[in-house]
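Quick one, T. Sequence first:
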Amino acid sequence: MLFRSSVSGGWSLKDVDLTSYAGETVRIAFYHIAACYGSCNDISTGWYVDDIEIVTVVPTFTGDFEAGWVDWSADRGIWQVGTPTAGPSACSSGDNCAGTVLGGNYQHETDSRLVSATMTLPAVSSPEELHLRFQNWFSYSTSDAGQVQIRVWDESTETWGSWTNVGVS
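Structure tokens:
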């Protein structure tokens, strides 16, 4: 699921198939990239996410941000949790969501991940599938983008693997 150089026009529900990671211990990230190619005056309000859930038949994980950060974190500081005053000007539901600078435009030459707590995804059996669903609103310009990523814990080495892009369309 790659969001690049455009405006969503409103909140929309996104769905990423995570079936191949069923039963794995993972972290999920929403990776914001602000690259400065050509004109560095071309920035926008960024990416906002809300109502995150992992679903098989019923939700087993939620991320609505109503209680604040809870077990979520951000690397390199661009992500914030609260009520937006720029961009969508309201969350998809409730009072809080996560966004790249809730009060205005994000900075040039930045990248930052909104990272979930560690979780073990439920196992599924055919024909079941496992999906990540979330509401999102975005406004990106030029070479900037947002990407959903996943990272898998390796039990044998007790280390995290690399971040992998998922749901690329």
